[in-house]
Automatic annotation (TrEMBL), chain B:
<dbReference type="InterPro" id="IPR017900">
    <property type="entry name" value="4Fe4S_Fe_S_CS"/>
</dbReference>
<dbReference type="Pfam" id="PF04879">
    <property type="entry name" value="Molybdop_Fe4S4"/>
</dbReference>
<keyword id="KW-0560">Oxidoreductase</keyword>
<feature type="domain" description="4Fe-4S His(Cys)3-ligated-type">
    <location>
        <begin position="96"/>
        <end position="135"/>
    </location>
</feature>
<dbReference type="InterPro" id="IPR019574">
    <property type="entry name" value="NADH_UbQ_OxRdtase_Gsu_4Fe4S-bd"/>
</dbReference>
<feature type="domain" description="2Fe-2S ferredoxin-type">
    <location>
        <begin position="18"/>
        <end position="96"/>
    </location>
</feature>
<dbReference type="InterPro" id="IPR006656">
    <property type="entry name" value="Mopterin_OxRdtase"/>
</dbReference>
<dbReference type="Pfam" id="PF00384">
    <property type="entry name" value="Molybdopterin"/>
</dbReference>
<dbReference type="GO" id="GO:0051537">
    <property type="term" value="F:2 iron, 2 sulfur cluster binding"/>
</dbReference>
<feature type="domain" description="4Fe-4S ferredoxin-type">
    <location>
        <begin position="169"/>
        <end position="200"/>
    </location>
</feature>
<dbReference type="GO" id="GO:0003954">
    <property type="term" value="F:NADH dehydrogenase activity"/>
</dbReference>
<dbReference type="InterPro" id="IPR006657">
    <property type="entry name" value="MoPterin_dinucl-bd_dom"/>
</dbReference>
<keyword id="KW-0677">Repeat</keyword>
<protein>
    <submittedName>
        <fullName>Formate dehydrogenase subunit alpha</fullName>
    </submittedName>
</protein>
<comment type="similarity">
    <text>In the C-terminal section; belongs to the prokaryotic molybdopterin-containing oxidoreductase family.</text>
</comment>
<dbReference type="Pfam" id="PF01568">
    <property type="entry name" value="Molydop_binding"/>
</dbReference>
<dbReference type="Pfam" id="PF10588">
    <property type="entry name" value="NADH-G_4Fe-4S_3"/>
</dbReference>
Length: 162, 959
């Protein structure tokens, strides 16, 4: 696992992390909601947040690290301005998503789990958006897109580049 | 001999009473309900293949090797996670299972290096064994493709490969050999309770990660070794095994560090110690260990260890190496000369809490029989003497009431003035396990210790009392229990004197003992005291564990009595899960006290004034024993300064470093004419010695240690003494040189003499200890198997005695010149004065003593983290570096005393416990100010040490 360098000042991360924890630590099983909150706050989960969370929840740093690295949805580095997720699960594959995946990587010039050099977009794979009826599908900045084809891909590329 | 092979049952034993009968491969087996099929099968002698299961941790069911078939059930469930059911018919070996297991093993091996011949685990690898067990003959998947094994692949870096982590001094982590079975992670969590390891990532990315993907040394790892023990491959391996190779025989013995008394297998190759592995049948540790016992034994072969006897005329002379005969003849002659010149009482001796019972018994016997006086004392004087007094007065015996297993049934655990996580780590792990199961924890300690805020085991109540206010706070807990009617009247009426209780109850109920009043002087918020008292009195089985934070005070004995009162008042005594338990600091403090090391007591805590007791020894030893107590350590030093005490035999104790008011100790020693030090190293006391007798380590002798739960554990010799003689032999030769006709050929004969003369040891013999592993005294006709729990059904003294505990503030008070309170303690990686652990790689964790100071106090004084500071008290001053932390409260500073150059005891005063003279280490009024470096005392002392450690004919003085 990589140890992404945080772009924030450590004191700032600690204070903002503490604020997120304060809002959510009363929940039952608060670790995942707190990590979501942190990701919302920073756009990713900074390493500097983990010791603060660990201390607040009386768990070890290792445990916090184990949980955050288990879930791919928790980012360890800031994402691009747009996040594009292409579904790679079975139903979409049967409807040609492999070709879609190859095409979008070519168009954006990046691979999966990568962010464009200009910071415009991050490309992630996703395993089922529950949109199998409209396969192949994708999600752009939280909005699902069904029945992907070459034209729709061009539109997506134009939008993230704008 | 051979290597002791312990059976791994795969999953922990079930404690259920209900028995279940099932059939495994046609054999009938009966096991407790809740037992796994895997364990039941092993009980029947059938070992089901396994990788991720081991009986130190709960079943996990991830390796898929232990699958079985069960009649009437579909599929192939894992035997480790499937509990037995009545009448179950299990098959552990079918064609289907064989095929599945082989397939699983193929997958494992396809991502594992095939370097078995050169691998450190060769001969001790479960993966290798299981591959053999399932009949793996080839791996159809090959070794190409994604893997974690090869550094480079197809001409490029393999990003999945990770280099070895060599950061821990005692073991390596080689990720390329890891099969991700999670045994290390689970051992760290379930056995040790540190949670320093995790599995990071998921799927093929899963890796074992210390901390947050850190090297072991930088993570939260405390190097207890549980993960290394759990690892089925060479992924986590002791560096000693990598260097030496696999051991070929092993001997069960007892750790020589703290009072937990863990049992270990010393695994040997020839007479070289390969590794120490905790023994699962050890009743104190149940297969667990800490960094000290597991790894820090390198001092035994450290280059500074002295192996030849030495003498010198004056302490300013260099040492001269002499033969054993000359050294002991010289010593005998000097002692006799001094007695002739200054009187029979002008010499004495100090027994060691580090040595065996047999050795301690011999030293006090030498003094009583050979010296002809009672001038014997022991280091327990400076630690647990108040325990002896307090528990003796209230309950009638001077020892902890429980075994360590008892904590598994405690519901409320009260820790007072102790930090087991650092000083008694294996007990702490067992305690934390119980807390994770739901028991509550109350801690009374001025500091936020590791015990207060450890992960998943945070204290429910932390009472951060001001140092020196123990009596007030504990009495205030009693106030709440009495005034709110939470006491156990039935228990008190049955087992204690009711009128004494009424008197005590009236006293504690007084308004000045209320939490609100006590808050004013202790700084503990009243509601915390009330909450803690209610919890202890009403929360189920309440168990109290306490340490030197209780005893090392001017009112140490009073606090012990207050604790004893608390347990009696709530009926928390005389059954499993409850009790009052002193956590003994050294391996054999309990034993050295049992063996008659005090000037007023013969073995078994029998006062020297008792004619019947003296008779036993007088007729056996053929001498008259003085019916008056002899001198305590501080009295010996006082007498030395006055010129009436001239010679001392000190076995295995460094009083200059460990006793209070260093300047007074050094003045006393300097005034003597013959100071004899028997030790492994030229310790600080040896700077003032005239004779140095090299000591032997616990690896080099037979004997017994008695731990904090009164358990008599065998110490077994695994190598010949490098100095020539075991310590008991040295004392015997000295006794012979002084004209005594001792003729012990083995320590077992000494134990036989102890058993013959001491009622509580009557049935103890090496034969019994070999048979039972260990026993807890009393062990006699009333309790032939020993006594795990004391005071069942009634107190040893008859009726439990309630005693008033009036709080009297110590004379050591803060003022304008000395506004801060210094208290002292320990750290996990170091032990006592550090003579042993400083000579191991444990210094990587703690290379110097630091002064912990609150940010507020530091800022006021212009002190930054890491600055050198001058620490001054009314007794003296020293310098050390500051560590700024909120673990200490404002107004309190804290340090450890593991390093001799710190000389923390130059600071401590000569105030001591009113009943026992136990020094008040835990409270000293001090001032802290910025400093440039070592104090004059430190510089002078350094020079003295350097000079007094010269050995003739050697260029470099030792140390």
């Amino acid at each position: 696992m990589m140890q992404p360098a945080s772009t924030q000042a450590p004191e700032d991360v600690v204070a903002r992390t503490a604020a997120v924890i304060a809002d959510l630590s009363g929940l039952e099983g608060p670790l995942l909601p707190i990590l979501h909150g942190i990701q919302e706050e920073f756009g990713f989960v900074p390493n500097e947040s983990l010791p603060v969370i660990a201390e607040a929840l009386n768990i070890s740093k290792a445990e916090a690290h184990g949980v955050v690295t288990f879930y791919h949805d928790y980012r360890r580095a800031p994402a691009g301005r747009h996040v594009l997720k292409i579904c790679r699960a079975e139903a979409c594959q049967s409807m040609g998503s492999d070709a879609i995946a190859a095409r979008i990587q070519q168009l954006l010039g990046i691979g999966f789990h990568e962010t464009a050099a200009d910071g415009s977009v991050t490309l992630d794979p996703v395993y089922c958006l529950g949109l199998c009826a409209c396969a192949p599908s994708a999600m752009l900045d939280g909005e699902v897109i069904g029945r992907l084809d070459a034209d729709k891909l061009d539109e997506i590329v134009a939008e993230v580049r704008s | 001999m051979g290597l002791i092979q312990e059976i791994d049952y795969g999953t922990p034993a079930s404690k259920a009473e209900k028995q279940i009968t099932l059939t495994v491969d046609g054999f009938t087996v009966t096991v407790p309900e809740g037992t796994s099929i895997m364990r039941a099968s092993m009980e029947a002698g059938i070992a089901i293949p396994k990788l991720c299961a081991t009986d130190m941790v709960d079943a996990f069911g991830s390796c898929r090797l232990c699958l079985v078939e069960i009649e009437g059930r579909a599929g192939t469930p894992s035997s480790c996670t499937t509990p037995v059911m009545p009448g179950m018919v299990v098959k552990t070996q079918t064609e289907r299972l064989k095929t599945i297991r082989k397939g699983v093993m193929e997958l494992y091996i396809s991502d594992h290096p095939l370097d078995c011949l050169t691998c450190a685990a060769n001969g001790d690898c479960e993966l290798q064994t299981q591959a053999g067990v399932v009949g793996l003959r080839d791996v159809r998947y090959g070794y190409e493709g994604d893997n974690h094994v090869f550094k480079r692949q197809d001409g490029a870096e393999n990003f999945r490969w990770m280099p070895q982590d060599e950061s821990n001094p005692y073991f390596t982590y080689d990720p390329s050999k890891c099969i991700v079975c999670s045994r290390c992670v689970r051992a760290c969590e379930e056995v040790q309770g540190t949670f320093a390891l995790t599995i990071e990532g998921r799927g093929f990315e899963s890796r074992v990660s210390p901390g947050m993907h850190q090297p072991f040394l930088e993570s939260e790892c405390v190097s207890c070794g549980a993960c290394v023990q759990a690892c089925p491959t060479a992924t986590l391996t002791e560096k000693s095994v990598i260097k030496i190779g696999q051991p070929e025989h092993s001997v069960v013995t007892t750790c020589a560090y703290c009072g937990v008394g863990c049992s270990f297998k010393a695994e040997m190759r020839g007479d070289e110690l390969v590794r120490m592995v905790p023994w699962k049948d050890g009743k104190a540790n149940r297969g667990h260990s800490c960094v000290k016992g597991r790894f820090a034994y390198g001092y035994a072969t450290h280059k500074e260890r002295i192996l030849n006897p030495m003498i010198r005329e004056k302490i300013s002379d260099p040492w001269r190496e002499v033969s054993w005969e000359e050294a002991l003849a010289h010593t005998a002659k000097e002692f006799r000369r001094i007695q002739y010149q200054y009187g029979r009482g002008a010499i004495g001796g100090i027994t060691s809490s580090r040595c065996t019972n047999e050795e301690t018994y011999l030293v006090q016997k030498l003094i009583r029989q050979g010296f002809g006086n009672n001038n014997v004392d022991t280091c327990a004087r400076v630690c647990h003497s108040p325990t002896g007094y307090g528990l003796g007065q209230t309950y009638g015996t001077s020892a902890g009431t429980q075994d360590f297993d008892s904590v598994e049934e405690s519901d409320v655990i009260v820790v007072i003035g102790a930090n087991p996580s650092a000083a008694h780590p294996v007990f702490a792990s067992r305690m934390k396990k119980r807390i994770r199961q739901g028991a509550k924890l109350i801690v009374l300690d001025p500091r936020i210790t590791e015990t207060v805020d450890s992960v998943h085991a945070k204290a429910d109540y932390h009472l951060p009392l001001k140092p020196g206010t123990n009596v007030a706070v504990v009495t205030s807990l009693a106030h709440v229990i009495v005034t709110e009617g939470l006491f156990d009247e039935k228990f008190i009426r049955e087992r204690c004197d009711w009128s004494e209780f009424e008197d005590w109850a009236a006293f504690v109920a007084e308004e000045r003992n209320s939490p609100e009043e006590v808050e004013k002087l202790s700084g503990v918020p009243a509601e915390l005291i009330r909450g803690a008292a209610r919890l202890y009195a009403t929360g189920g089985n309440g168990a109290i564990y306490y340490g030197l934070g209780v005893t090392e005070h001017s009112q140490g004995s009073t606090t012990v009595i207050a604790i004893a009162n608390l347990a009696m008042a709530t009926g928390n005594i005389g059954r499993r899960g409850v009790g009052v338990n002193p956590l003994r600091g050294q391996n054999n403090v309990q034993g050295s006290c049992d063996m008659g090391s005090f000037p007023h007591e013969l073995p078994g805590y029998r006062h020297v004034s008792g004619d019947a007791v003296r008779d036993i020894y007088e007729s056996l030893w053929g001498v008259k024993i003085d019916n008056e107590p002899g001198l305590r350590i501080p009295n010996m030093l006082d007498a030395a300064v006055e010129g009436t005490f001239k010679g001392i035999y000190i076995q295995g104790e460094d009083i200059l470093q460990s006793d209070p008011d260093t300047k007074h100790v050094s003045a006393g020693l300097a005034a003597m004419e013959c100071v004899v030090v028997q030790d492994l190293f030229l310790n600080e006391t040896a700077n003032y010695a005239h004779v140095f007798l090299p000591g032997s380590t616990f690896l080099e002798k037979d004997g017994t240690f008695t731990n904090a739960e009164r358990r008599i554990n065998r110490v077994r010799k695994v190598m010949a003494p490098k100095n020539g003689y075991a310590d008991w032999e040295v004392t015997q030769i000295l006794a012979q040189a002084m004209g005594l006709s001792w003729n012990y050929t083995h320590p077992s004969e000494i134990m036989d003499e102890i058993a013959r003369t001491t009622p509580s040891f009557a049935y103890v013999s090496y034969g019994l200890l070999d048979e039972k592993g260990s026993v807890q005294w009393p062990c006699n006709e009333k309790a032939p198997d020993g006594t795990p729990i004391m005071h069942i059904g009634g107190f040893v003294r008859g009726k439990g005695k309630f005693i008033r505990t009036e709080y009297v503030a110590t004379d050591e008070k803060t003022g304008p010149r000395f506004p801060l309170l210094l208290t002292t303690g320990r750290i996990l990686s170091q032990y006592n004065v550090g003579a042993q652990t400083r000579r191991t790689d444990n210094v990587l964790w703690h290379s110097e003593d630091r002064l912990e100071i609150h940010p507020h106090d530091a800022e006021q004084r212009g002190i930054r983290d890491g600055d050198w500071v001058r620490l001054a008290s009314r007794a003296g001053e020293t310098t050390l570096r500051a560590l700024i932390t909120e673990r200490v409260a404002p107004g309190v500073v804290y340090t450890t005393f593991h390093h001799p150059d710190t000389q923390a005891n130059v600071i401590t005063t000569d105030f001591s416990d009113w009943a026992t003279n136990c020094p008040e280490y835990k409270v000293t009024a001090v001032q802290v100010s910025p400093s440039n470096g070592p104090s004059t005392w430190q510089q002078d002392y350094d020079e003295l040490s350097r000079r007094s450690r010269r050995i003739e004919g050697r260029l470099e003085a030792a140390e």
